[in-house]
Structures are given as C-alpha cells and as structure tokens.
Design brief:
Elements: H1 20-43, H2 47-66, H3 73-107, H4 112-115, H5 119-141, H6 143-157, H7 168-188, H8 196-215, H9 222-255, H10 265-296, H11 298-308, H12 314-318
C-alpha cells in the first residue's frame, strides 16, 4: 500500500512526453494520497477536511473518467461505481455543512422577531448532521471502502502495460473532448426559465470539466488558464444557486415534519422566500455566465491548444 503514504503537498505537473498510461497512474496516486491525508479529520467532522475529502473523491472519479480509454475496463467500472457510493456518504455531510452556513447567513437577515424562533431549525439540523457524520464513519470503515482504496493503491503502483506507449500530449485532446461535449450539451439545453435540476446538471458537467482541465493544465497555455478561471466562476455561481435550492428543500421537509414547534414555521417560511429570491438571481447570473463562456469559444480553443502542443515542431524534432 505504498501509494497510501502521506506526501508533502505539491502540485500535480504532467508533461506532454509522459506516457499516457503512466500519467493515469500518477494522477490516481496523487488524489488517493489527498484522500488519505484528510480522512481522519473528516471523520471527526471538521468542515474543511470533509470538503477536501469530497473533492478528492470527485477528482478520483474525474481521473477514471478522463483516462477511461487507457484503463482496464473492469477495474475502472468497479472503482467508479464504488467511488460514487462513497461520495454519497461524504456528500451528505458536506451538504449539511453548507446548508448550516447558508441558513446562518440568511437567518441574520430576517426580522428580529422571527429570528428568535430559528433555534429549533438549528437543533434539527445539528441532530441530522450528527447522524449523517456517524453514517459516514461507518461507510469509511466498511469493507467495500477499504477494498476500494486498496484496489486504487495497487493500480497506482502498478506498471503501465507494455504496448500502451502513447504520449500524453498526443492523446490529451481526445481524452478531454467527451468532457467538453458533455458541458456543451448540458448548457445548450437551458432556456431562460431553466429549472434547478437542469442548472445542477450543468454545474456537475462544469465541475468535471474543470477538474479534467486542471489535470492537463501543464500541457496547455493561455486558453487553458483562461478557461479554468471562467469554469471556476461559473461553477461557483451555479453552486450558490444549488445551495439555495437545497436549503429550500430542507426547510420544506422540516416544515412538513410532525411535531415541529409551530412558532418555527414562520421563520422557515421567511427563509424560504429569501432563498427563492437568491436562487432566481443566481439562475440569471449562471445563465449569463454560461452564454458568455459559450460565445468565447474557449472550450474549442483549449482542445486546439492541447492539439498544437501535442508534438514538437518537425525542425525541433530533427535537431
């Protein structure tokens, strides 16, 4: 399990001359180590480590998706499925962390008379968070989780198969292209009255593409840097809208729960109204940000930039 040793925190830098199959193993090892590094603090419920654990899991899934043509099919399918299962437990805790912060900020803006009745909402949220954190600990301790980490570690430390000697630079555009297409398809399905699930779908695709481009960042140049800035901004805007939608859903479920204090229903309603306004604003901003990104044709430029950097000029090669 040498791939699970905790390293110093350094950036991931790939070269166009790296073997593509070797690069896949390097990327998996890098994010697997990040997962192991933050797991103990995440188990304890520390907010930022929970977030980083979720990010590491997502980046591992992105790596498996990005390098899928170069990976053993059965290994990739099983690992991706198990990571999705694990991500559900991590995401449940992280979502409640974000929900708590969202409700705290919004509660500070409601009428002072209503604010006094917010306490029961906080108690209910805390109790749910404690249950969810315990479930995450049980999931991380499960045999399925330990086998998953073991398989990823074995893969990361394995030698790339002979006969898969393609340079990373030569295949990078083809590896990234499906992620670009997925974002474009999700974005073009959106109308001016796009529903939260449609915006959330775009956000997921944007996040996957951002992580994939970050993996290949060192192979690109100006277009790669610019598109990463735009993708991060778009992801953030869409994310805040999704946070509002998630909070609204939780508040409605709380209000429908039998036995909740009647006085807490008024602040719950006020919070729902405020969050609905916020969600509408974020929807408008998210749609504008997507249209701006689409008009720049930066996504196409990134693929062209990676393709142009794939092979050295012939004169340099002859020299």
């Amino acid at each position: 399990m040498t791939a699970l040793r905790v390293p110093q925190r350094v950036g991931l830098v790939l070269s166009p001359d790296d073997g593509a199959a070797v690069a896949a193993r390097v990327v998996v090892r890098f994010h697997l180590r990040a997962f192991v590094r933050v797991e103990p603090a995440a188990r304890a419920g520390e907010v930022e480590p929970v977030h980083q654990l979720r990010v590491a899991t997502r980046r591992l899934r992105t790596a498996l998706r990005l390098f899928a043509p170069l990976l053993p099919a059965r290994f990739a399918a099983a690992a991706h499925r198990d990571l999705a299962w694990l991500a559900t437990a991590i995401g449940a805790v992280r979502d409640l962390d974000v929900l708590g912060e969202t409700l705290r900020k919004q509660a500070g803006r409601v009428d002072p008379e209503l604010r006094r009745e917010v306490g029961p909402l906080g108690v209910a949220l805390h109790e749910q968070h404690e249950r969810t954190l315990a479930e995450l600990g049980a999931t991380l301790d499960a045999k399925r989780s330990r086998r998953l980490l073991e398989r990823l570690a074995v893969f990361a430390d394995s030698r790339a198969p002979v006969g898969r000697g393609a340079r990373l630079g030569d295949v990078a555009p083809d590896l990234l292209r499906p992620q670009v297409r997925a974002v474009v398809r999700a974005g073009r399905r959106l109308g001016p009255d796009a529903a939260p699930p449609d915006l959330h779908r775009l956000r997921i695709r944007v996040k996957r593409l951002r992580y994939a481009v970050e993996t290949l960042r060192s192979l690109g140049d100006r277009s790669v840097r610019e598109v990463l800035v735009r993708l991060e901004r778009l992801q953030d805007t869409l994310g805040k809208g999704q946070d509002a939608a998630t909070a609204i859903a939780w508040l409605r479920a709380y209000a429908a729960t039998r036995g909740v204090p009647a006085a807490s229903l008024l602040p719950a309603g006020a919070l729902i109204q405020a969050l609905a306004r916020r969600a509408r604003r974020r929807r408008r901003r998210g749609l504008k940000a997507w249209r701006r990104l689409e008009r720049t044709r930066l996504l196409e430029s990134v693929l062209k930039e990676l393709a142009a950097a794939a092979s050295p000029p012939r004169e340099a090669a002859r020299a």
